[in-house]
Amino acid sequence: MSTVEFEQTALPVGEFNYSRIVLSDNNVEHWLNRSKVIDTNLDSKEIRAGLEKRWTKDSPVYLLLTGMPHRDTPIVLQHHNDEVWFRNLKIRRLD
After folding, report:
1. What angle do CA 89, 90, 94 make, to 5 degrees?
2. What is the pTM of this model?
3. Tell me, what DSSP letter sits at residue 64?
4. CB within 8 A of 43, min separation 6: which ones?
5. Rounded CA gap, 77 and 2, in Å?
6. Rounded distance, CA 2 to CA 32, Å?
7. Which sequence spans correspond to the domains of the chain?
8. Which segments of the chain does DSSP mark as H helices, in order?
């Protein structure tokens, strides 16, 4: 999905977006306001190329992201130096 399509899916500033992330084995889906915006595999060439572009291959972060199995992991909520609000967070294991 292009940046323009993503921005059209996001709600205006001041409104809450609905987001759902599903990880099944190494497949990741991200849904934003009930529209699928990402559907990829963590082992894909595109993901690997993005990691290599951002970090050198001997970087601890690169080695961590490419070398470890994707199992239980901490959840991190990100913001970009702006005020951010989260509500109704639910995390569950899908067996």
Report:
1. 150
2. 0.72
3. H
4. 26
5. 23
6. 14
7. 1-41, 43-72
8. 3-9, 45-54, 60-67
- Chain segment 53-92, per-residue pLDDT in tens: 999 988 888 888 887 666 666 778 888 888 888 999 998 8
d(CA 19, CA 53): 27
Q: Residue 70 and residue 14: Cα distance in Å, rounded? A: 34
Distance CA 75, CA 63 (A): 19
- 16-50 CB burial, b ≥16 within 10 A, e <16: eeeeeeeeeeeebebbbeeeeeeeeeeeeeebeee
Count Cβ atoms below 10 Å from residue 15 Cβ, excluding itself. 8
H/E stretch holding 31: strand 27-32
Q: Measuring CA to CA, which residue among 56, 37, 53 is closest to residue 45?
A: 53
| Radius of gyration in angstroms for the set of CA atoms belonging to the chain, rounded to a whole number | 15
Return d(Cα 52, Cα 13) in angstroms, integer.
33
